[in-house]
Design brief:
The protein has 276 residues and is an alpha/beta fold. It contains nine helices and nine strands. A hairpin with a 5-residue loop joins strand 6 and strand 7.
């Protein structure tokens, strides 16, 4: 990781992120991947330069960021909202220890809300999450002492259904790319949340990479701030649409961009369907 990488990261996330706290170590190699979406908007990726080996993701993600790393980032403040993207398959990078902070009682006591985006990749040939990965992800999630929001993708949710199993939490949103999402909440019947129409020349995404992550992170932030689930899902969908309308993540969070999110949110809200 170089100063040039730090500058590029800060340029990519823009003013919407207050601070980037990189984790450093002389024995670590920064994980790097090439990621894209195919014609059906399915994620495809591969690692570069062996960066998913023992010195890369497998080593760096072994309990990094740790509970201590996150506590240091919080400083003296409590009541934070934490969103984690965590490996949850049968053989996860780092041995699944990137979820170790969610098992730390001292850290959990300082958090007001915890959201998880579990990662279990579909097989490149079958396009499906294997039964072994689905079962491992379920066991991992059920072993967490606290989780306020769960946001799997549709591939993992389908694999759970194939096992005739579910991992429902008080609030869960299943992401399904261009088909939108389905919201499950103890406060209402399942809600189908459609996508917003894109403001692009052909109505297609310019680059959908990161839209699902943006949706999941926004859901955690909104729910953790007390926004009702259906309203949160509509806003998060609007944010995901804006990501799809840019080549990279938006870097200027100005009034024009916020108005575009509001417009998309209002469109989605008008099309929401509550299942019986």
């Amino acid at each position: 990781w170089t100063p040039r990488d730090s500058a590029a990261l800060r340029a990519a996330v823009g003013a919407g992120v207050a601070e980037v706290l990189p984790l450093t170590g002389a024995d670590c190699l920064t994980p790097r991947i090439r990621i894209w979406h195919d014609a059906a908007q399915n994620v495809r990726w591969y690692p570069e330069d062996g960066s998913f080996g023992p010195r890369g993701a497998d080593g760096l993600w072994r309990n990094r960021p740790s509970a201590e790393d996150i506590a240091a980032a919080l400083g003296d403040g409590d009541g934070a909202v934490l969103h984690i993207v965590g490996e949850a398959g049968a053989e996860p990078a780092g041995g699944g220890e990137d979820l170790a902070p969610l098992r730390d009682p001292a850290l959990l006591a300082r958090l007001a809300f915890v959201g998880l985006e579990p990662v279990a990749f579909a097989d490149a040939e079958t396009g499906e999450v294997s039964p072994a990965d689905a079962a491992a992800a379920k066991a991992t999630i059920q072993g967490l002492p606290r989780l306020d929001f769960l946001c799997p993708d549709a591939d993992l949710d389908r694999a759970w259904r194939a096992l005739r199993s579910s991992v429902r939490r008080p609030t869960e949103a299943v992401r399904d790319g261009p088909r939108g999402s389905v919201l499950y909440s103890a406060k209402c019947a399942p809600v189908v949340v459609p996508v917003a129409r894109l403001r692009t020349a052909d109505g297609a995404p310019i680059n959908p990479t990161g839209a699902g992550n943006a949706y999941a992170g926004a859901m955690t932030a909104l729910l953790g701030s007390g926004v009702p689930p259906v309203e949160a899902a509509a806003v998060a969908t609007g944010i995901g649409a804006v990501v799809c309308e840019h080549e990279t993540l938006p870097t200027e969070w100005n009034w024009g961009l916020l108005d575009r999110i509001l417009e998309a949110t209002e469109e989605v809200t008008s099309k929401v369907v509550c299942e019986e």
